[in-house]
Design goal:
This protein is α/β, with parallel strands linked by helices and 360 residues long. The protein contains ten helices and 15 strands. Bound molecules: 6-O-phosphono-beta-D-fructofuranose. 6-O-phosphono-beta-D-fructofuranose binds next to loops. It comes from Novispirillum itersonii (Aquaspirillum itersonii).
Length: 360
């Protein structure tokens, strides 16, 4: 190995820069390799001119502490079937392989979620390029790892939001509905819901009823507390099972459907005054938490070790207090959802929260 690339792919999160820093430092200082930072995910190798920058520990600046990814990222389009401006689709995988050859890459470290990992592993295989993955996503829904980079920071943000919503809810005797990210999985909602003392937590994996939600809120109010907190993951459907997204902006689906839906329904069913907050991309930005910096550093350096050992087609993962290497086939099988019998679901229920219907 002489030259490696590192790229971030898919939605950003806090801690990506810390991974890039760890990869660069370990590759240059420990192994004496050259490191290219590939800009905007796979597009950096597909575009002409190529979009990249040489990285060295000297030019990393304050990246350990900074949110986002200074390399840029993309989650638009599959390079095997890329949408062109004229409406047609083109296979750009050959350009990717040629780009990797032009840079003289021997291996590529991809920091991504499960979707990015799936696409990039195909691209790298076709290009004859060894790949090692590093899991990241605020949703924490990557198989093969207990934690993905970005998750810890995002649940801190959501917990802080609940800490800020509670006093205003109490002052005005309101029910506050907080919609959080989690397209396919309820990990953010259940973790932050527990940490932030929610009364109701709704996740895509567990069916709920409006009677269940309203009943919980009524019982909270009947016991003398005049406010309540509800956390709902964006991927939750309406009680009728339909998609709650209610509007389109510029042809794009707008977030907020389920939060608005519940706000209306809870007001109708309980008579309580309700307000909704959609946290959105606030959950993805900002300074990485201590935990994310540590995870990013452990993952980045171990990913470089895997490259040195030529253990390609693996992802680093966190299991049982340490970093492990997980074969990519075990990772790229879709989102890792919240088990309806998860420890935290049981914890929430033991604390009296409504987390959807319990199995009979
Ligand atoms: O997968 C991470 C995630 O933050 C989801 O929770 C959310 O639905 C999605 O990304 C938003 O992505 P975009 O960057 O396209 O708005």
């Amino acid at each position: 190995i002489k030259t490696i690339g590192v790229m971030t792919s898919g939605g950003d999160c806090a801690g990506l820069n810390a991974v890039i820093r760890a990869v660069t430092t370990a590759a240059v200082e420990r192994y004496g390799w050259k490191v290219y930072g590939i800009q905007d995910g796979s597009m950096g190798l597909i575009s002409r001119p190529l979009r990249f920058q040489e990285l060295s520990p000297a030019n990393l600046g304050n990246t350990l502490r900074e949110g986002g990814t200074f390399l840029g990222t993309t989650n638009k389009g599959d390079p095997f079937n890329f949408p062109m401006p004229d409406g047609s689709f083109k296979d750009l995988s050959g350009d990717f392989a040629e780009g990797a050859r032009m840079l003289g890459l021997d291996a590529l470290v991809v920091v991504g979620g499960d979707g990015s990992m799936r696409i990039l592993s195909r691209l790298c295989q076709q290009a004859g390029l060894g790949m090692v993955g590093v899991p990241k996503t605020i949703d924490n829904d990557v198989h093969g790892t207990e934690y993905a980079v970005g998750f810890a920071t995002s649940i801190n943000v959501v917990t802080e939001a609940l800490d800020r919503l509670q006093p205003t809810a109490a002052s005005h005797h309101r029910v506050m509905i907080l919609e959080v990210m989690g397209r396919d999985a309820g990990h953010i909602a259940i973790n932050a819901g527990i940490a932030g003392g929610a009364d109701v937590v709704l996740v895509p994996e567990i069916p709920y009823t409006l009677d269940g939600v309203a009943g919980k809120i009524r019982s909270v109010l009947a016991r003398g507390r005049t406010h309540a907190l509800v956390v709902v993951a964006e991927g939750v459907k309406t009680a009728e099972g339909t998609n709650a997204t209610i509007s389109h902006v510029g042809g794009e689906q707008r977030y907020g459907g389920i939060g608005h839906y519940l706000t209306q329904k809870i007001a109708d069913l309980t008579g309580a005054e309700t307000r909704v907050t959609i946290l959105g991309h606030v959950q993805r930005g900002g300074t990485p938490s201590t935990r994310d910096r540590i995870l990013a550093s452990a993952f980045g350096t171990h990913a470089v070790d895997l490259v040195a050992e030529r253990r390609f087609h693996h992802m680093v993962g966190w299991q049982n207090r340490g970093v492990v290497a997980v074969p990519l086939e075990k990772v790229t099988i879709g989102a890792c959802s919240l088990d309806p019998n998860d420890t935290l679901v049981r914890t929430a229920r033991a604390l009296g929260m409504y987390v959807g219907e319990e199995p009979a």
